[in-house]
Specification:
nuclease; 8-stranded antiparallel sheet; 5 domains; Alpha-Beta Plaits; DNA-binding; disordered N terminus; 23 helices; Nucleotidyltransferase, domain 5; about 900 residues; 7-stranded mixed sheet; alpha+beta; OB fold (Dihydrolipoamide Acetyltransferase, E2P); nucleus
Length: about 900
Amino acid sequence: MDYKKRNGGPFMGGASQAKRGKTGGEWEDSPSQFEEELSMFDEAEMEAEEMEGQAGHDVIPVGDLFSADLNPRWRRPNAPTLDPSSDKLVFQQIDLDYYLGSAVAGMPGQLQGKVPIIRMFGVTDSGNSVCCHVHGFAPYFFVPAPSGFKADYLSEFQKELNSAVLKDMRSNKDNISITVLAVDITRKESMYGYHGKRILDFLRITMAMPRLIAPAKRLLEQGLKFGPFPLQSYPSYEANIDFEIRFMVDSDVVGCCWIELPKGKYRVSLCQYEVDVGWTDLISHPAEGDWQRIAPLRVLSFDIECAGRKGIFPEPDKDPVIQIASMVQRQGETEPFIRTVFTLQSCASIVGSQILCFTQERQLLQSWAEFLRTVDPDIITGYNIQNFDFPYLLNRAAALKVNLFPYLGRVRGIKSVLKDLNFQSKQMGRRENKTINMEGRVQFDLLQVLLRDYKLRSYTLNAVSFHFLQEQKEDVQHSIITDLQNGNEQTRRRLAVYCLKDAYLPLRLLQKLMCVINYMEMARVTGVPLTYLLSRGQQIKVVSQLLRQAMKQDLVMPVVKTEGGEDYTGATVIEPEKGYYSVPIATLDFSSLYPSIMMAHNLCYTTLLQKGSVEKLGWTPTGDLFVKSTVRKGLLPEILENLLSARKRAKTELKKETDPFKKQVLDGRQLALKISANSVYGFTGAQVGKLPCLEISQSVTGFGRQMIEQTKQLVESRYTISGGYQADAKVIYGDTDSVMVKLGVATVSEAMEIGKEAAEWVSSHFTPPIKLEFEKVYYPYLLINKKRYAGLYFSSSADTHDKMDCKGIETVRRDNCPLVANLINTCLQRILIDRDPKGAVNHAKEVISDLLCNRIDISQLVITKELTRTAQEYAGKQAHVELAERTRSMCWRTTFPLTHNTTWNSSCPNPLRLEATSNNSL
DNA sequence: CAGAGCACCTAA
DNA sequence: TGAGTTAGGTGCTCTG
């Protein structure tokens, strides 16, 4: 009856949901906090600068919108004239692609037909945009030369392959006459397997354009006959490398690095630095020292509103776009310098932002596109722009035949087209995405970033803003948007404030989470373009590093056909001694376990001895053989050493650095380095991947299993009563790279002391850089099961705990309703902090009785898919009963160990569970 | 009603 | 045509 009582709020958020009044959908209009914030921008700017002729908060009649006088901030700063014969051009490259074009006279490379041209987009220190066309770089791959091959046969080979490729083409739209540009002999060695540094002759086959690589590779695999050689199949090497990556690796360019074009080596062709350069002339600066800086990139965030029909999700062929809000900020600054709303119909002014009103939707769309091209952002952000705003705008513009709309990139004449893309991985499952090409601009959809990098309970902009910024959206229900639009200029103003905030929040989040900095650092560390980090998986990052390392030793990467096979054995989880521990439990961890194993044992493609090899130079637990680093040091260990030592450097620099901005960059870097090191192992084990090598991955886990076992033995053998210690140490649990040890001491500080000593002593039994570290003490500690435990975490001080640490329990899982998570969290606090298990039980009983007596709002229960589905199947009261029952059983189950915490073990039956599940009469 | 199989999510 | 790994707890459904 009275279950409407709302005693909740957002999970973990407590009652602070609606601090800002404005609860209902009332239309009363006191200025919101956000409006005050907006007006502050205005005041600050009025003080800082003369009125530039921009009427900050006026409603501007559409007319001379794009004149420099009216909107001086929209355009980029004027670009100083450049004299290629005496000036160099330096810019930070932020995006990179290629296109097929005609050769430019004076530039290296093929002269006739279409040639591939790399295009780098970037920004100079003074904020001028650069489009740099790099000429003369052609795609290539390798095949081993057949035995007895001599230079005399090169032209014969080239001719045969060329005609085979031509014959293979179904149509020849581009009228290609030469497909194979060149064939050369080079001395190379396959990186797969150690074969006594057997450097062989390889044919380096250069093709006219990237898309000819795949057919050439296929034809060579199928078999080619040339000269005196019999028909035979040629395995290919590096024929599956993206052209952009190929270029970057070969010219030592990494994502987001600074590029210098020396004087006399480039030519200017168009406005704001559109230049041509030969590929060997550009200088790429490693991201060190001064070259770590970031150019003043323009970041545009936007949001659109549509007038949908009642209860129907807006459809672009029917429902109009009524508002578009945009905010533009320079990377590194704290406030947006452009704040604009384009509205359909009139709209009352908003202090601190510019309102542009249109009577025709077509004109609104057209003008916004023009606005975007004028502002010329390097990065475009927003919330779900990739799958909603951009597709909607493009489809709407198509429906209204606004033909000049879909040109949103930085290259004149290239139409932005919507495409469906299916992205699938074990990690993320199947994900349907849309893509829009926008040459030279990086689309940084904040929703996509959050889905990739953060595990959250809810990904709505409101929930995310609350979680990270303790701030929320302006309060406007979706259902009233159309009514607001059909009202008057005041109601449309309210909508505009809402829309502006939705454009502003992504910008704030981007800043708070340091997305741009962190992603740039990742691009620099791994060497891939920024856009790859959002559109591609983990593998390409390792490939990029592997190729760079391999090139130094003339090693080439084979193309392997990918087929899934048997899984291999992973890590050991030590059988837990379940229970409640009211004594300190020391935790020892191997730091970077898998990377350090690969380094210590020189595990790599290049050091693997193929089965049947006679030499036995060092065994792995799985019976695979790898040569010692004294024979040949592996590429993967080299990559890992570079990553981890760079991380150490970044961390020491971080400690010294005082400038907060540089600190952020360094922190982003050390994080990127850590993640990169950890993904190398996964790459070798990815059976459907670019270069899987299960010998490496299973040896890594094999060593890991041996090590955790040995660690347990060592600790338990040394810390004994007979060895002079207070008690016999016991490893009560361990997972993959850690052991939890009950040392039998009474205080945290004793546990810390012995823990540190034990870690050091155990480390001495392993090959460097393998290292066991003392990490923390849990006191008290509740061990529920494998991968499920909780405890008070001591590491910085022996007197006070840093936090309550929960692993695998309902409190950290997203497939439980908040009620359960909150309940368990409170119970754990009672047990661990108050040391009052009875209090925990009482609390649980209270909550459950509230639940059974319908005293709890049903909406709190509906969170998991299963529960949602059930709620849909049952109606009204019945749904409540069903949900209550399910939640109740979860509560009983998870609270049970808490009630019997000191004596309970897994062999005991669970009387409460029996009671809970058998008692179905509510 | 046990248990296999599956979905989901987490630990490392 | 692109996708990091295995171990493992828990709840639900289906089946003999």
